[in-house]
Amino acid sequence: MQTLSEPTLVSHLLALFALIRKDWKQYWRYPLNAISSVFHPLVWIAPVYFMGLAFSANGKAEGFAQYSGTTDFMSFILLGTVLENFINAVFWGMGYALKNDMDSGVMESNWLTPIPRLLILIGHSVTNLIVTAITSASMLLFGGLIFGFHPTGDILAAFLPIIPMMLGLYGFGFAFAALVMLMREANAMVDMSSFLVQIFSGANFPVNALPRYLLPVALALPLTYGLDSVRARLIGTTPLLPLNTEMVLLVVFMFVMLWIGTWSFRALERRVRVLGTLGQH
Amino acid sequence: MRSATFVPASLGHTTPLNGLRALWAVVRREWMIFIRYPSWVVSLFIWPIIFPMGYILTARALSGVDGSGLAQFKLNTGLTEYVGYMAVGTMIWMWQNVVLWNVGGALRNEQMRGTLESNWLSPTWRFAYLLGASVPQLVSMLSMLAVSGFEYAFIFGVKFNGSLWLTMLVVLAAIPSVYGLGFAFASLVITMKESNAFVFLVRGIVMVFCGVTYPLAIQPQWMQNVAEWLPQTYIIHAVRSAALSTEGFQGIAYDLQMLLIFGVFWLTLGMLVFAWMERRARQTGAIGQY
Question: For chain B, percent helix, then strand, then coil, each to nearest 5?
C-alpha cells in the first residue's frame, strides 16, 4: 500500500485525523466525565473565592492589589484557571495518553506504524485542546455569572502571547511524554508536575508574592510571562516586565523549548526502544 | 467417578479462612503494585507540601505587602494565622481524595484491566477485593498523614500546640466514614463506569462546603447547613482542634460523636451498595464491560 510504504503528508494528516477522531469518540463516550470537566475547575476556584472574601473589605482585596495591581482577584484567578486548563491539556493530553495506550496494550502496535512519533503525541493532544477550549469558554461563562469576570482590555491583543506560550508548552510536553514512556508511569508524574508548574507560573496568585528564594523558579518558567502578559492585556494588572519584552521572551522560549523537547523525546524514545520496554507497563 | 469430579476443598467449600486467605492475597498484590511505581511512593512526600502551598501562597498574596489583607482576614474570621489552618484542611481533603481514587477506583481499575470478571467468577469472598485494596491504601495514607505533620512543622513552621493522642483518636474515628464512603463509591463507579466525574463531584463537594481553607462562617447559611451533613466537616474541625489548639477533649467531643454516627452510616451503606452491585452485576452480566 502506498500509504504504508511511502508515507506522504496526506497519509500523515489522515493518521492525525484518525487519532483525533478516536480520542474525540472516546471522550464523549463518557458524557458525565465530559460535563464534569466544565464544572471541575470552578470547584477549585470556589474555595479561593471564599478565601478572597475573608481577606477583603467590601469585596475589594486591597492587599492583593499591592502585588497584582488589581483588587478584582476573581477575574485574576478565573483567567489564570482558564490558561491553566490549557497547560493541563498538554500535560495530560500527551503524557497521560501514552500511559493509557500502554495500559490498554496498543502502545507497541501504534509505535510500529509508519507515522512520525511526534505526530502521535500531537494527535493525542489536539482533542484535549479542542475540549479545553470548549470547557474553558463555558467555564468563563458560568464562572463569570457566579463569581464575576470583568475584562477591560483588548481580547485580540490578549491572544497574542498565547500562541508562542502554547507552542513552547508543546516542546515541554514532548520531553515530558518521553519521560512517561521511560518511567512507565504517568498519574503521579503528570499530576505533580502540572501542579508545580501552575503554582510557580502564578495561575492563582501574582508570582511576586512568592518568597524571594522561590521567585527565580517562577521567573525561569516561560508560562509565567505568558500568564502575566495575558492578564496585563485583558484585566489591566501590572506586568512583571514591559509587555514587548515579555513577548520577545515568549518567542525565544518557544524555539528553545521546541528544540529541547524534540531532542529529548528522540533520545529517550531511542532509549526505550533499546531497552525493549515499550509494551510494558 | 469420584476422582473426575474432585473439587479442592478451598474452592468447593468456602470458609471464613478461605476468605481471609483471599483477602491477604489481594492485600499482597495491591502492595506489590503500589511499590512497583516509585513515583507513587515519592508523591506521598511531595503532595503534602505542594498542595497546601498553592492555597497558602494565594493567602500570602491576598495578605498584601503591608499585611493589610491579613488584618482584614483576622477581622473577618477571628483567626490569627492561616498556614496551619489551611495545612490541616488540605491534608484531610487529600486523604479523602486519595481514598476516592484508590479505594473508590479499585474495582474500576480491575474492570479496565480486564481482570474483574474472571476474579468475580472465582469462589472467593468478593468483598475481599475491595477490602484488600483498602488495607495497603490505609497504611500508605496513615504514613502520609504522619509525614505531612512533620513537613508542616519543619517546612511551613506550623506550631502543633495540641495533643498527638487526641489527633490520632480523631483519625481513628474518621476511618469508618472515609473508607465507608470509598466502599459505596467503588460499587457505584463500576456500575456507572464514569469514575472521574464521580470523584470530581464528591471531592468538589468536600472542597467547597467543608471549610478546607476558610472558616465555615464565611459561607452563606445554606452552605453551612449542607456542611453539617458531611463527615469531613467534623474531621477537619476535630483535627484542627486536636492538633493546633489546647482545647483538649472538650474541643473534639461533639465531632467524635458525629463521626461515630457517620461512620456507622457510611460503612453500612458501603456494604449495602456493594451487595446491591454484586447482585446487579450477576443479573445484567455487564461487570466486564467498560
Answer: 80, 0, 20
What's the domain count of chain A? 1
Q: Is residue A281 part of a domain?
A: no
Q: Does A250 touch chain B (CB under 8 A)?
A: no
Note whether A103 contacts B: Cβ–Cβ < 8 A: yes
The distance of A79 to chain B (nearest Cα, Å) reads 15
Domain segments of chain B as ranges? 14-284
Could you tell me the residue range of the domain that residue A57 belongs to?
2-275
Q: What is the pLDDT along chain B (290 residues), one digit of tens a residue?
A: 444 555 555 555 678 788 888 889 989 988 888 888 777 788 888 888 888 888 888 888 999 888 888 888 888 877 778 888 889 999 999 998 888 888 877 788 787 777 888 888 888 888 888 888 888 888 888 888 888 888 888 888 888 888 999 999 999 999 999 988 888 888 887 777 767 777 888 888 888 899 888 888 888 899 999 999 999 999 999 999 999 888 889 989 999 999 999 999 999 998 898 888 888 877 877 676 66
- A11 within some domain: yes
**Is the distance from CB of A123 to CB of A20 less than 8 angstroms?**
yes
- C-alpha to C-alpha distance for B158 and B86, rounded to whole angstroms: 10
Average pLDDT over residues A106-134: 83
Q: Is A226 on the interface with B (CB under 8 A)?
A: no
- pTM score: 0.79
Instruction: Answer yes or no: are the C-beta atoms of B240 and B161 closer than 8 Å.
Output: no
Residues A47/B57, Cβ–Cβ less than 8 Å:
no
**Integer Cα distance of A142 and A167 in angstroms:** 28
Whether B61 sits inside 8 A of A64 (CB atoms) is: yes
Q: What ipTM, to 2 d.p.?
A: 0.78
3-class secondary structure, A57 = strand
**CA nearest B179: which of B149, B216, B136?**
B136
Task: Please enumerate in sequence order all residues whose Cβ is within 8 A of that of A146, keeping only pairs 6 or more positions apart, or say none.
Answer: A42
Cell 503528570: give the residue.
A190
Q: Please tell me the distance from the alpha carbon of residue B88 to that of residue B97, in angstroms, as a whole number.
A: 14
Q: Write out the three cell numbers for B112.
A: 479496565
How far apart, in whole angstroms, are the C-alpha atoms of residue A115 and residue A125?
16
Q: How far is CA B14 from CA A215, B118, B265, in A?
A: 62, 17, 29
| Partners of A57 in the β-ladder | A60
Report residue B213: phi and psi, to 5°.
-120, 5
